Amino acid sequence: MPHTLHDERLDLVSGLLLNANATSVLDLGCGVGRLLSRLLDYPQFTLITGIDISATALALARSELRSKSLSETRLTLIVGNFTQPQHQAQVHDAVTMIETIEHLDPARMSAAEHTVFAHYRPRLAVVTTPNREYNPLLGLADGCLRDSDHRFEWGRARFRAWPPAWRSDMATHCTSVASANRIRSSVVRVNTHSLSASEFDRSTLAATRG
Questions:
Q1: Closest residue by Cα to residue 83 from 40, 51, 124
Q2: Can you give the pTM of this predicted structure?
Q3: Is-cis flag, bond preceding 136, omega within 30?
Q4: Cα 101 to Cα 197: distance, rounded to the nearest angstrom
Q5: Gap between the Cα atoms of 188 and 176, Å rounded
Q6: What does DSSP say about strands 94-98 and 172-179: parallel, antiparallel, or unpaired?
Q7: pLDDT of residue 27
Q8: In the chain, how many H helices and how many E strands?
Q9: Which helix (H) or strand (E) holds 187?
Q10: Counting CB atoms within 10 angstroms of each CB, which of 46, 105, 141, 174 has the fewest?
Q11: Tens digit of pLDDT for each residue in 54-112?
Q12: How far apart are CA 119 and CA 117, in angstroms?
């Protein structure tokens, strides 16, 4: 099977998690579990949790991952909304959101931010989203979205500015995933410091008032 751009994206995310010495990963919006499948290949990850709102997607994930996870207790799958804290999810070193935030209504973004950075409070967060700067290469007019289920699509500058609390309180890195013959690209953002709940609230409030 050809190595797709999504495979390259998952390679990059897996490498970031490995290099950060994360041992536990919470994948929000995990879908059918493609990232989870990769992480199960590495003994370094001793706790792997996937959350998705679709019970159907999680059933497929459970079926696909059965051969890898049958004899181990590393994997947990939870049906739930990633904009709301799932209290059965344990504490994790890292949180990933791979091609998920663009499916959220903008009005719900603040809830997602608070859930990730104030409730889960990971040491590392890795987020990817389609890069709208590549849309003209797809023949899309300005303002058109790649997928009917996308609520928005951002360029790199907009992504670097999200969320407000990251601007001065967190060390971040932003890069792109692309290759010469594949024009669907993503931008990846990595957070390497998490705020306490009160610090997050103050930073968000200050940014909003500013």
A1: 51
A2: 0.81
A3: no
A4: 21
A5: 6
A6: unpaired
A7: 97
A8: 7, 7
A9: strand 182-191
A10: 141
A11: 999 999 999 989 877 655 689 999 999 988 999 888 889 999 999 888 888 888 888 99
A12: 6
End-to-end CA distance of the chain, in Å? Answer: 50
d(CA 208, CA 163): 11
Q: Which residues are CB-neighbours of 45 under 8 A, at least 6 positions away?
A: 17, 22, 23, 24, 25, 39, 74
**Could you state, in chain order, the average pLDDT of each consecutive group of 10 residues for the chain (210 residues)?**
74 90 96 95 95 96 81 86 89 91 87 88 87 79 80 81 57 54 53 50 38
DSSP state of 85: -
The helix (H) or strand (E) run that includes residue 52 is strand 47-52
The one-character DSSP state at 23 is: -
Contact 72, 64 (CB under 8 A): no
